[in-house]
Amino acid sequence: MQETFGGSFTQQLPVPPEAEAAALAVLRSGRLHRYNLSAGEEGETGALEREFAAATGARYCLAVASGGQALAITLRAVGVRPGESVLTNAFTLAPVPGAVAGAGAQPVFVETTERLTINLDDLEGKLGRARFLLLSHMRGHIADMDRLMALCDRAGVQVIEDCAHTMGARWNGVPSGRHGIAGCYSTQTYKHMNSGEGGLLVTDDAALMARATMLSGSYMLYDRHTAAPGPDAFEEPIWECPNLSARMDNLRAAILRPQLRGLARNCAAWAERYRAVEAGLAGAPGLHLIPRPAAEAFVGSSIQALLPGWDAAAIAALVANCAARGVELKWFGAARPQGFTSRYDHWRYASPDPLPRTDRILAELIDMRLPLTFSLDDCALIARIIRDELERAPGNPALRQAATGTAAE
Ligand SMILES: *Cc1c(COP(=O)(O)O)cnc(C)c1O
């Protein structure tokens, strides 16, 4: 009897009971809008901003309607101009180039390494073309931030971090989102805190935060923010910044605050699940796991692997055979954008130049979510199923090599 898995790859944990109680209190108060406060009241949204700033060690924090809005508002707040080129990862999610295009700017994509991070040699060659790098820590993989920041600082390129998959992660002890001028996070259901939709932006830069606050749609109520700069910083933005109405509301903030208190614990639980799947797949034929450097304290909310030398039909068959046994793998090599896996060359509005190294990696890249509803036994079972399918896959080049006695490279 073949083993199968019955869990759901899209089932997150319920919101914690404290979040339920806090949400109910907001609902009963009727004061859902973040600025609907009584005199001297901070409100759930203000409190979330203050607590998230403290958690990341940032001076300022702004809560907004989505992660994509956090990116788009940050790009405008730093002064990205229509038509200007903004560097970003070729391997990322659609809202990242979407935020650049939304600011009227032109994404310029940078190649991808075997570690799924931005290729720093390719980046170095492109630094002369832009004032800003929108750096996406896609699927939680963090580039060598020490080298990256040194390169960008030398070239005068400012870095904005997309931390949708690195909330709670660190590079060399520094929280992700705290290397560049601003860090942007998502609290959409599939990320590390869940309010359905939502985003957070942190920075130490008072002028940036004042502009972002005005852009987010604060009307002239910016003095109610407790993680924002003083009124002087707003003197220019109140005249210069359009209102994009992308605020967070008190209901979402109320749901998020207890989750923030549980974030470190959840990150530890993700690490255990990631390591359980990784251990179960170690040495499986035809599969290359992504090495994780010691400096990278990552959050294992998903796992990726490469299938070196596999052709498209063989990968499609593997994905289908795993799916038939309840294991949902995503593949980044499909010709058409599917689900959450669109690819840089699908984003035609950005007129992407071909990137052969990224193409080669995405063609071999598989991806799997690890929701916290999975137990460690579930993770071990999932790994056994994938391993079994790898060992019996007719299109697995590692098996062909073994059969013909050809040494693997
Ligand atoms: C989810 C995600 C975003 C943006 O998040 P939304 O809240 O859905 O707008 C940005 N970057 C990456 C890599 C993401 O996965």
Explain the layout of strands and helices.
Layout: H1 17-29, H2 43-56, E1 60-64, H3 67-77, E2 85-89, H4 95-102, E3 106-110, H5 120-126, E4 132-136, H6 145-155, E5 158-162, E6 170-171, E7 174-175, E8 182-186, E9 199-203, H7 206-215, H8 237-240, H9 250-261, H10 263-281, E10 288-289, E11 296-297, E12 302-306, H11 312-324, E13 330-331, H12 356-363, E14 365-369, H13 376-392, H14 397-404
Parallel strand pairs: 2-3, 2-4, 4-5, 5-8
Antiparallel strand pairs: 1-9, 6-7, 6-11, 8-9, 10-12, 12-14, 13-14
Helix pairs in contact: 1-9, 2-9, 3-4, 3-7, 10-13
Bound molecules: pyridoxal-5'-phosphate.
Pyridoxal-5'-phosphate binds next to helix 3 and helix 4.
What is the CATH topology assignment of the largest domain? Aspartate Aminotransferase, domain 2
Quaternary = single chain
The CATH homologous superfamily of the largest domain is termed: Type I PLP-dependent aspartate aminotransferase-like (Major domain)
Q: Calculate the mean pLDDT score and round it.
A: 96
Structural class: alpha/beta
Strand order of the biggest β-sheet: 1-9-8-5-4-2-3
How many domains make up the 3D coordinates? 2
Strand content: 5-15%
> SSE order, as H and E?
HHEHEHEHEHEEEEEHHHHEEEHEHEHH
Summarize the structure in words.
The structure is a single chain. This protein is of the alpha/beta class. The protein has 2 domains: 17-261, Aspartate Aminotransferase, domain 2, CATH 3.40.640.10; 263-404, Aspartate Aminotransferase, domain 1, CATH 3.90.1150. The protein contains 14 helices and 14 strands. The protein has helices at residues 17-29, 43-56, 67-77, 95-102, 120-126, 145-155, 206-215, 237-240, 250-261, 263-281, 312-324, 356-363, 376-392, 397-404; strands spanning 60-64, 85-89, 106-110, 132-136, 158-162, 170-171, 174-175, 182-186, 199-203, 288-289, 296-297, 302-306, 330-331, 365-369. The protein has a 7-stranded mixed β-sheet with strand order 1-9-8-5-4-2-3, sandwiched between helices. A 4-stranded antiparallel β-sheet has the order 10-12-14-13. It is globular and about 75 Å long. The chain starts with 16 loop residues before the first helix and ends in a 5-residue tail after the last helix. The structure holds pyridoxal-5'-phosphate. Pyridoxal-5'-phosphate binds at residues 66-68, 92-93, 95-96, 136, 138, 162, 164-165, 186, 188, 199. The site of pyridoxal-5'-phosphate has 15 residues, from helix 3 and helix 4.
